Amino acid sequence: MVFGRGFIRSSAFAGVLWLAGCAAQQVTPMAMTQPGDEQLSCAELAQQIAANRASAEEFVKKDKQVDAANVAKNVGSVIPFLGLALMASTDLSESEQVKARALVDRDERLNDLSKRKNCAGQ
Amino acid sequence: MRMTKMLATAAFVTGAAFQLSGCATSASSTAMTVAPQPAAAAEKPFPPPLQHAMCVRAVTGGEETNPLWVSKVDNKGFQDALNASLDGAGLSAGSGTCAYSIDVNLLGLSQPAIGFSYTVTSHVNYKVYDASGQPYLLATIDAPYTATMSDSFFGVERMRLANEGSIRASIQDFLDKLREGPQQ
Prior knowledge:
The complex is a heterodimer.
Chain A: H1 5-20, H2 42-76, H3 82-88, H4 95-116
Chain B: H1 2-20, H2 29-32, H3 38-43, E1 54-60, H4 75-89, E2 100-110, E3 118-129, E4 135-147, H5 155-179
Parallel strand pairs in B: 1-2
Antiparallel strand pairs in B: 2-3, 3-4
């Protein structure tokens, strides 16, 4: 027999990964505009802006962790066979980055509404 | 026998590595450009105030491609593609007065790590402001595009094609929204 059992198992595992494909994680960023935005009071606007800012900071932190993990996986991808599994588990969805940036843009919109409603003095 | 096994293993690992890594290249602006669509323009023209009155002010959020990693979309490539698409649609102000400026924020590209078919989804915020600085259109567009093995056998190239297709689809969606008039 040319190939050992271990080789066949590893190849099959790699093949399954290959054939199945690892679809990118579904990411739904917060849209800049939301229905009912114009009806928000100054207090509601301020509350949403603060909550979005806090969430964005959390996503930025998580994004850095994902990036660091990806670098480690990329380095490990040179290991025969195990490298394939590491490569397949790399997270290229940019999920946290997308959500963080979307929240920053959403806040830009809410700040604009806040300005138009003269909320600063309230 | 042992030599054959080693050669087979080496061939497999090399093939897999070549398929997975290779040298990644940045998305091409030409491939991301939406071609002029005379039929669509005749059926539903853009609002007259927008025609020959738009310009791209800024594109942010893009990334340079690291050849040892995966293909990405950079700001200049996106801006060139958007400018060319606006030109083709008759929206670009050219050297004339820019009455509607466009800011683009590329939130990110959701890419798969491995697979036969690569589906990339671009997430982009388009912000169009009128001459007084008021928002004319604020749109968050998620645009998926799938590149298959028939598009390219090589993984790095397939990823680039998926990126380009996704941005092209995003710009197409943006143009469709412009046809609808002001939205915010």
